[in-house]
Amino acid sequence: MSETLANPFTLLFAGSGQGIGAEAARLFANEGAKVVVSDIDAAKAKSVADSINEAGGQAIAVPGDMLDDKYLESLVKKAAEFGNGKLHIIVNNAGYTWDGVIHKTTDKQWDTIVALHNTQPFKLVRAAAPYFRVKDGEPRNVVNISSTSGLHGNAGQANYALAKAGVTGLTKTIAKEWGPSFGVRANTVAFGHIMTRLTAAKEEGGYVTLPDGERVALGIPQAQKAAREDGSAAYKDIPLGRPGTATEAASAILSIVSPLMSYVSGQTLSVTGGRNM
């Protein structure tokens, strides 16, 4: 265990049952944080929490649907109880894409993605306000996860691009409201091409099941993916020449929360391998 974080910290990680979230949960636990694993998939959330505990860390799984307001209230309550009445870090990472060109995007597609990436993170932070608006001398952080789609737009992702752009406004407002009196730092981490289920081939069958049973296919269509990665032209728009790993993405989240960035707040850290600079 290193000294990146002061101990003990309680971390509520929304969307940490797999991919970047799971990797980050383990990294934070290795630094001594007490981790609350939140994910809609109960089995995956339990698996991540179990792996942390088996490695000597401290974690609990509190699965549920981020679109359920009652779940958010329960999640914050259980996180604070796990932290002996304290909560230090929130990472808003839960989400997925539901793509469609503008003229074919349905209201359901639009409303679901905007709610998941904008409205519900706001409600989670609002519910946690009593644990952040305190003056006990202990550092507190909110990290909202965004995307290059939110910074630059992306064809076929009007809903996701708008939602991820909105994340930066929420982050800056938290920093301006809770920084002066309570010392809360709030930052955004915007990912580029990271190897996750959202950037895998759509034909591989990744999907999210909505509460009404509808399945949303995830990933990039194989033909489009192959065109982007054809031969020597693979990842030509990324100066480092490759996609990032989930561990690299998770490390960026840990770094921005660490005391090494104690004077950084209200900023957006782009983790892109140099893309879009």
UniProtKB/TrEMBL annotation:
GO terms for molecular function: 3-oxoacyl-[acyl-carrier-protein] reductase (NADPH) activity. SUPFAM superfamilies: NAD(P)-binding Rossmann-fold domains (SSF51735). It holds the Pfam family adh_short. SMART domains: PKS_KR (SM00822). Its EC number is 1.1.1.100. Residues 9-181 form the Ketoreductase domain. It catalyses: a (3R)-hydroxyacyl-[ACP] + NADP(+) = a 3-oxoacyl-[ACP] + NADPH + H(+). It comes from the Eukaryota. Belongs to the short-chain dehydrogenases/reductases (SDR) family. This is 3-oxoacyl-[acyl-carrier-protein] reductase.
